[in-house]
Amino acid sequence: MDNHSETLSSVEDFLKNEAFRRWVTERQPADRAYWQAWLAVNSDKKEIYEQAIATFLVVEGNKIELTDHTAKQKAEQIVDQMVDFSAPVRPLLGWAKWMAAAAIISVLVWWRMDTDQVGSQARVTRATERKETSWKQVKNTTGIPLVVLLPDSSSVLLSSGSQLRFNKQTNQAQREVYLDGEGFFEVTKKPDKPFIVYTPTLTTKVLGTSFQVRSFDNETSAYVRVKTGKVSVLSAVSPKKPILLRVNEQLRLDTKTDKVLKQSRSVADEQSSSIISEQFVFNYTPIPVIFGQLEDSYHMPIIYDQQSLKKCTFTGQLNDVPFLEKIRLICLAIDSTFEVVDNQLIIHSHGCS
Amino acid sequence: MTPPDHILWQSYRQGDKQALGRLAERYYRALRHYGLKFMVTESVVDDCIQELFLQLWQNRLQINDTSSVKHYLFKSLRHHVLLHLRSQKRFLVEELDWDSSLTEGIDSESLLIEQETLTLLTTTIQSQLASLPTREREALYLRYYENLSIGEIAEVMNINRQSVSNFLQKALSKLRNQWLVHLFGGIWILCQKNFL
């Protein structure tokens, strides 16, 4: 018990008194006994006491009801979503699935991927959707890159051992994703909504383009590489000074020496992932050939009828559009439709003659 | 005994996510109470609190030590609520709303005060405070409900210390008049009729 309470002589004194504050907030029986005794001794200060109580309650305003248990639960939910590599690997892979048919985006469904069969075709099962939060986390432990489709139609080719967190809602002012590890981003063009990739050391901001970000906890350098368009990068070393990168440029940050290096990207440098240098340019190319290349690059199975599509061809370049946009454009050209089901792409077509 | 804030903060900055979780648990109620004052829904406040902690985690390498974790969290929450409101384009100015509504049916007996007296006092004080700008009411809340120092309030509200002092002075002088009326009155209800 704070024992300066005998000197309390104004409302302000009460409001600043720790014992009084605790009594009004918590209303413990022990405090009640104390203040009852206090009022008996200081009967002349009863009015000030009453005013102090009333003032405190007014300043407090609407009291919120939240049990310790709920607070604990809320905190646990938050911890569950913290991306961490040193923690034991959780075999959970959130996976956003959306369908765009006739420009209608359908319901989001989340998937859980079993990691027992590393490197092989992963088994996909349904997981419960978390209603409490609008953020989704995807962790790739399959051993092969995994294409992640974002709600704004952008796509990310997430390398194995990497995690991505993004907002399921599309009504945000900015499109923000958090990355631990490596990802190749193909971003839907939306000039009014910047797309921002956060890693612990580098922040990359774009409006619509394709680029690769790599930042693993256990590696001594992090980088951003641009395939198409331009991006601006902020590093932890100089958080106020953005660095602009254009096509075929890269920014490398040595996390040990905090040295930032902007350089031209040499093709020989690309052992980690080839998609950044891969060209998607087609000239009367048969559809099965194109689908074959897309399957190899994005590691997503494409189900279609070989026989009926072998006479269909596509001409054009699909370098700076997201994965599903590539598919949509091809389907548009060959008068077909598509849907994403169980981590597979299914093409519906009558074929070409 | 649970570890004090600054120890948890230190562990969190060294990569202990459970430490940050402990802080989230410790301050969840206070943050929610504060956030709801800005006239946003509970789910918005919950989202903002979650976002603030996830960002703290994500940016742990860039986060500094702090003299008071509590005021740091309050400052971040205020920032996130502002961002949310801006994204909703609900207001263009820097001004935040401040909810001054009272809890219904306060059990006065448990606070050693008569129901009638308490109702009378709270309504009078409330009407006095209602005439204050939202920022002055917010400063009052942070000072006397959350017990933050002038310097901490200045940081939370992103204004200078002098402004905070002025806000509090103004708010208190309003209240003081009311207290005096009550003290000298004894004919308190009469005064009410005359002045209001």
TrEMBL record, chain A:
Q: Which GO terms describe its molecular function?
A: sigma factor antagonist activity
The protein's superkingdom reads Bacteria
- The membrane spanning regions, by residue number, are none
Q: Where is the Protein FecR C-terminal domain?
A: 279-347
Q: Provide the FecR protein domain boundaries.
A: 146-231
Q: InterPro entries from the entry?
A: FecR, FecR_C, Ferrdict_sens_TM
What is the recorded name of this protein? DUF4974 domain-containing protein
Q: Which organism is it from?
A: Spirosoma terrae
Automatic annotation (TrEMBL), chain B:
Q: Which residues form the RNA polymerase sigma-70 region domain?
A: 23-90
The record's listing under InterPro entries reads: RNA_pol_sigma-70-like, RNA_pol_sigma-70_dom, RNA_pol_sigma70_r2, RNA_pol_sigma70_r4_t2, RNA_pol_sigma_r2, RNA_pol_sigma_r3/r4-like, WH-like_DNA-bd_sf
Asked whether the UniProt record includes Transcription regulation among its keywords, one would answer yes
Q: What organism is the protein native to? A: Spirosoma terrae
Q: Name one Pfam family in it.
A: Sigma70_r2
The family classification in the record reads:
Belongs to the sigma-70 factor family. ECF subfamily.
| Keywords in alphabetical order | Sigma factor, Transcription, Transcription regulation
What name goes with this protein? Sigma-70 family RNA polymerase sigma factor
